[in-house]
Design brief:
By secondary structure, the protein is an alpha/beta fold. It is built from 13 helices and 14 strands. The chain folds into two domains: 159 residues, Rossmann fold, CATH 3.40.50.2300; 152 residues, Rossmann fold (3-Layer(aba) Sandwich). Bound molecules: beta-D-fucofuranose.
């Protein structure tokens, strides 16, 4: 096990994150008609629309809710959905997008598993005059290769999680030894949540140290295994930032197995706000969650229709999100939609 504190504390993550966000912010509006000459030819004017969608996989509760939302919203919008699950592998997503191009779908959307390596396939889609709408995660490709992004601001989520951690740790006595469970290495949410969290933590109590940070691939099993190893190498860990609820839930199992009390001996903040995360929070095992809303289906279908009708859309269609602490969990649980 190699401690990645230096990497995390260094500039690599920050550069990658800041290289992505301004690219989208810089151009608030675009004309999809101009950038997608084929868009007005099919799908608009009441014609049937076929959407090719490549999903990351089924790694988390967030992903399950996101997939359901996209399927439901496509059905309601009368859009034919050609859905493909990439099982968290970029090569599967590239193959799926190539298939969509060969099938001449009206529009392609995908949630890119990692940020880099999309230029070739996105250029193929552009040459085939098929507009591409990113959903959930960003890419580092030139923005002329896609119309827009429908998804969350992950750096802001990292900052919100850090402020929740400050709240949770307020009044704590003694040193704070923090660990971080990162999402899939090279993915936009992992890079940007880490950067946002670091930004706030760097300006926070200097005695709080992030001693270890590793990739748990956004899965429960990943969180469980990596946390078990963390506890072996750093038995003094007393705070954990997990990039999603599933990894936090996996980590809780390892914390209990190590004879410690999650939420008490080790304070835990995560991101997402899925049902099982709220259950753990209502039991005091997770202390706070920065919500990341997976219900992107309706916004995506509206955007598909707008793009195919040649309307101007925002470059980044963001999602509304809230923060929750353990004392709010039980009351909020029954009204959670995912
Ligand atoms: O937080 C995590 C999922 O990209 C926002 O991916 C998404 C993240 C989400 O696996 O649970």
């Amino acid at each position: 096990m190699i401690a990645r504190r230096d990497l995390f504390r260094g500039t690599a993550g920050m550069l990658a994150a800041s290289a992505l966000v301004p690219a989208l912010d810089a151009c608030a509006k675009s004309s999809p008609k101009a950038s997608s000459p084929g868009a007005s030819g099919s799908g608009g004017g009441g014609k049937a629309i076929t959407l090719g969608f490549s999903q990351v996989g089924s790694e988390s509760g967030w992903r399950t809710a996101n997939t359901q939302s996209i399927k439901d919203a496509a059905g309601k919008a009368g859009i034919t959905l050609n859905f493909s699950d990439a099982q968290q592998k970029q090569e599967n997503q590239i193959a799926a997008i190539r298939n969509f191009i060969a099938q001449k779908v009206d529009v392609i959307s995908f949630s890119p598993v990692v940020t880099s390596g999309w230029d070739a396939v996105l250029t193929e889609a552009k040459n085939a005059k098929i507009p591409v709408i990113l959903t959930d995660r960003q890419v580092d490709s030139d923005q002329s290769l896609y119309v827009c992004l429908v998804g969350s601001d992950f750096e802001a989520e990292g900052e919100r999680a850090a402020h929740l951690m400050e709240k949770v740790l307020a009044g704590a006595s003694g040193p704070i030894t923090m660990a971080q469970l990162e999402g899939t290495s090279g993915s936009a949410p992992a890079t940007q949540r880490a950067a946002g969290f670091k930004k706030v933590m760097d300006a926070s109590d200097p005695s709080w140290k992030i001693v270890i940070s590793q990739d748990g691939n956004f899965t429960r099993d990943g969180g469980k295994q990596v946390m078990a190893a963390f506890l072996q190498s750093h038995p003094d860990i007393n705070a954990l930032f997990a990039h999603n609820d599933d990894m936090a839930i996996g980590a809780i199992q390892s914390i209990v197995a190590a004879g410690k009390k999650p939420g008490t001996d080790i304070k835990i903040v995560s991101v997402d706000g899925v049902h099982d995360g709220f259950v753990a929070m209502s039991q005091g095992q997770i202390n706070a969650i920065a919500e990341c809303n997976p219900l992107l289906g309706p916004q995506l279908m509206d955007t598909v229709k707008a793009v195919l009708a040649g309307q101007t859309v925002d470059r980044w269609i963001k999602t509304k999100e809230s923060d929750f602490t353990a004392d709010q969990a039980a009351a909020a649980l029954p009204s959670r939609q995912y």
